[in-house]
Amino acid sequence: MDIIIKSLQTDDERNACLEVARNLSEWFNEAGLRAIEEDLKSEITFIALDKEVLGFITVKSLNEKVLEILWMAVRREHRGKGIGSKLLNFVEEWAKEHRFEVLLVKTSGDLSYKPYDETRKFYEKNGFVSVALIDPYPEWGEPALIYVKCLKGKEKEH
To answer: What sign does the dihedral 9-48-102-69 (CA atoms) show?
Structure first.
């Protein structure tokens, strides 16, 4: 695979991102899909492309220092091939270039719901640290785990 990562630009790309999420129903319910659809129109999204959209990551600035990952998904048949890590690394570099110091992500805090074990392991493997469990998270009505990753001090030497 010859994957490129770029900004979401077209309606076709946006629709392809929605299709990726729709096919991952263990992670994205109807309310989540509606929120993804809105956020794909208004927030910054990067897509992983080969011949088709393989995955996406949507981010939002919370302030000048903190960038939140709102959504991330990779086509089911391409999961486990490093595409999510490539998207995450791309966002980290982009965040550093834009002087963000912290990446934040909220994920399901329902530890009995197995599909999110993978999600939590993915973020932990990529250097995120769980800093809070909010139960219930007000906007969700269910538990949320808050993960952060500090970006400061990890700049590459030039």
So the answer is: positive
The backbone torsions φ and ψ at residue 17, rounded to the nearest 5 degrees and listed phi first, read -60, -45
3-state SS, residue 102: strand
SS3 2: coil
Integer Cα distance of 27 and 69 in angstroms: 15
* β-pair partners for 137: 142
Report pTM.
Answer: 0.93
Residue by residue, DSSP assigns 33-82 as HHHHHHHHHHSEEEEEESSSEEEEEEEEESSSSEEEEEEEEE-GGGTTSS
Whether residue 99 has pLDDT greater than 90 = yes
Residue type, 63: N
